[in-house]
Every structure is written in C-alpha cells, then in structure tokens.
Write a sequence for this structure.
C-alpha cells in the first residue's frame, strides 16, 4: 500500500503509524487526519464515561446533572408517559418549520415570562424551538456574533463549563465576572457589581436564571433588582440561561423571578429554556430560545434571522419532544401533574442535602457543611479539591466533576451514607 501511495506522489498524506491499512486500495490518499490529536475529555460528560467503564458494584455517579429516583434510576415523569400515550400513533412525521412547533414556542415562553406577560400580548417575543438548552445558548451566541459582531459576552466565574465552549465556538469575545466567593461559599455580589460596572456599554451578560450551576447560589430578589438597574444604566444586555426552572424551589413561577424582575424594568432580554431537567426529557433535546424585542415587527425579523441561522446547521428541530411538552403544557390536568412531579424531584434533592449534611456531622467531621443545605437546585458546590475528588474516584469509585460539584440528584437513601463516609475520609 505504501509504495502505491509514494508512486502517486501522495507521500505527504501518508500515516506514519503502522496502522493495518489493508482495506485501502493502492493509490487512495490516506493520512488526512494525521494531525488530529484526541480531544480533551469533557469535564462533565467525561465523568459519565469513566463511571460507565467502572465495574465496581459500589460505584456512585454524582457527576452529570441528571435526576435519579431514590433507587438511583433515571425517571420518566408520569405526565410525560401520559402525553406519549395521547400522541402515540396520531401524529405524522413531517418536518417541523425551521423555528419549530409554534404551539410549543407559545407555551414555553408563557412558562418563562408568565401567562399574561405584556410582552407576549404585544407579540414582542421572537421564539424558536431549539436543541435543548445547549442549542438555545449556541443559537443565541451565533445570533449575537452575526448582528453585534464586536460585542462581548460576560460569563460568571464559575459557570457550566460548556458556556465557555459555546461562545468560543461562536467567536464572541468572552470575558468573565466574579460570581462566587469561596470564603463565604456564597454570592460575591460586590465583586459581581464591580466587574459588570466595568463592562463596556453594549456588552452581553450571561446569567443563570435560577439554581446556578455549579454553585447552587442565586442572587436574592433585591440583588436581582439592583443588577437590573445597573444593566439599565450601563446599557448591558441580559441573557438568561434557564436550564433548571422548577428545580430551585419546586415552583416554576418562583424560579422565573429573575426574568420577571428584569422584564418589569423593561429590558430587552433573551432566554434559553431547557426541558431536559424539569420534564426529564434529556435525550429528546427540546428547548426554546426567546428574544424580547421592541415591537412585533422586530420580533418577526429576529425570528426569521434565528431560523436562518438554524437552517444550514440542522434545518429544523426534532418533533417528538416538542409534542410531548406541548401536550403536557396544554392539558390542565397533565400540567398540574407536572407541577407536582417537579416538586417531588426538587423535594427529594432537598431531602438528600439534609441527609448528606447530617451524615457528615454524625461521622464527626469538623468541617462546616451548612452550605450543602443552603445551596439550591441540582448541585452542591462542595468545596472538595481536585485531589480530594480524585481520591474519591480512585479509592471509593465515586464519580463527580473535578471542581468538587456533587450532583445531588444522584444521591439516594442507599448511597448517602457511603458518600458521606468517603467525603469524611478524604477531608480528615
Ligand atoms: N445550561 C446549564 C446551566 C446547564 O447546566 C446545562 C446542562 C445546560 C444549559 C444544557 O442542558 P441541555 O441538556 O442542553 O438542555 N447541564 C448538565 C448536563 C451537561 O453538562 O450537558 C450538567 O451540568 O451536568
């Protein structure tokens, strides 16, 4: 094979590795991807890969933010199962429009902004169905780059690791702002305001609408109001990533308070919604990007441009998940049931926070653990160091992200004692 390639003057394409290349006919070029090195492991999804590869029966996965029941099993919500039955066999499988299912978009934005929000009545919101929350963030980042090419994005420290990738790949100039204070294990509100005051007018700011990932620390209503004033006076654009509506308090309305506060102040904001967590539709990839505009014509224009970005990327979004969400949210009984099921998930997590904290205290840990119950949402930002996390994995088969984030949704009555004991051992 090699001699054939050399004869054809394609030597520079040849792989130097002695790979078994018997299936490549003589003369075919090879080595196209010689320079490609393996990508770094994803800090979150890579943890799941490592967990799956571990055969120890004691293993525990508190890495990815995916809800588990008290038996540690993935959950399909009852309201979703019922919606599936309603849909089954009745829908065609045509393409959706580029912007997705119109009814789905209408119901989504009502969930985010409120059923009777004036911006919805005035038709000032451009909304498109997206590939879950990630797709909503990415679509917005591309939109930002296209129409505000010189603008910056300000990203909190820390944040969901993928935020950095998303705005980097969209080639938006990224900056950070302080968010979390390790010494208090709380919000660094002063640092946040100081950093955002320095952001040039016209900058975009990424905010977690609720249940901040990974810290579990949210601003209070008063702090959101103060931030909203700053955004107004300094001409900053609020972009809300709302991946956990319902998971902070168990109440989808309360969890949307930040958005409502900014709306009341008249901001043109944008919001990325995900139904992965709160409806348990992780693999269905169903979400919504909405952009509040000045008037209904602008909303039509913006929507058309969002669709145009989607078209060459994935053309139009998938059907099934959007139908499920639409069925749940448009049927009063199913919607009521959904609210109850969200609350059950949120409450189980809160219960596990208490169990983890009390188990650590019972073991005589002298470290302060009250942040476990003070933080909200799916995660506990434990304060464990990378070395301690590595020991948990190596010695106890406990898998979590190296920043010390524990997905409380993976903690169960059955593993909480084991987890507490392991954490105690590595923090002694
Ligand atoms: N925003 C935030 C803040 C977030 O934590 C996630 C997912 C997403 C968006 C995207 O979710 P999607 O499934 O695209 O709707 N976070 C969890 C899963 C992941 O990393 O993809 C996690 O942090 O574990």
């Amino acid at each position: 094979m090699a001699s054939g390639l050399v004869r054809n003057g394609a030597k520079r394409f040849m792989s130097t590795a002695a790979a078994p290349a018997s299936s490549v006919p003589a003369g075919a070029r090879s080595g196209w991807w010689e320079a490609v090195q393996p990508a770094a492991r994803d800090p979150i999804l890579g943890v799941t890969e490592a967990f799956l590869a571990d055969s120890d029966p004691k293993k525990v996965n508190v890495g990815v933010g995916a809800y588990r029941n008290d038996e540690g099993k993935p959950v399909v919500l009852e309201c979703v199962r019922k919606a599936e039955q309603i849909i089954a066999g009745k829908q065609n499988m045509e393409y959706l429009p580029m912007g997705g299912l119109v009814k789905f978009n209408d119901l989504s934005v009502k969930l985010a902004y409120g059923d009777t929000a004036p911006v919805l009545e005035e038709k000032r919101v451009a909304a498109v169905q997206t590939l879950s929350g990630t797709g909503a963030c990415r679509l917005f980042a591309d939109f930002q780059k296209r129409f505000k090419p010189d603008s910056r994005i300000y990203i909190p420290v820390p944040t969901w690791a993928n935020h950095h990738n998303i705005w980097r790949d969209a080639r938006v100039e990224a900056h950070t702002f302080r968010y979390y204070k390790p010494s208090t294990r709380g919000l660094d509100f002063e640092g946040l305001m100081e950093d955002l005051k320095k952001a040039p007018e016209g900058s975009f700011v990424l905010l977690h609408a609720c249940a901040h990932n990974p810290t579990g620390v949210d601003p209070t209503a008063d702090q959101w109001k103060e931030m909203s004033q700053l955004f107004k006076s300094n001409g900053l654009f609020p972009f809300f990533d709302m991946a956990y509506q319902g998971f902070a308090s168990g109440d989808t309305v309360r969890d949307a308070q930040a958005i409502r506060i900014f709306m009341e102040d008249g901001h043109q904001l944008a919001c990325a919604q995900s139904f992965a967590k709160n409806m348990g539709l992780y693999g269905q990839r169903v979400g919504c990007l909405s952009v509040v505009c000045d008037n209904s014509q602008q909303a039509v224009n913006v929507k058309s441009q969002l669709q145009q970005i989607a078209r060459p990327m994935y053309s139009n979004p998938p059907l099934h998940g959007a139908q499920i969400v639409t069925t749940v949210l448009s049927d009063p009984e199913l919607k009521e049931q959904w609210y109850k099921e969200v609350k059950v998930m949120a409450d189980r997590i809160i219960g596990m926070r208490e169990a983890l904290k009390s188990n650590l205290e019972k073991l005589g840990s002298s470290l302060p653990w009250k942040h476990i119950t003070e933080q909200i949402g799916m995660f506990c930002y434990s304060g464990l160091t990378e070395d301690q996390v590595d020991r948990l994995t190596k010695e106890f088969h406990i898998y979590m992200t190296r920043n010390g984030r524990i997905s409380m949704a993976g903690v169960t009555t059955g593993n909480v004692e084991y987890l507490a004991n392991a954490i105690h051992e590595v923090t002694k």
User: Anything to note?
Assistant: The chain is about 45% helix and 15% strand.
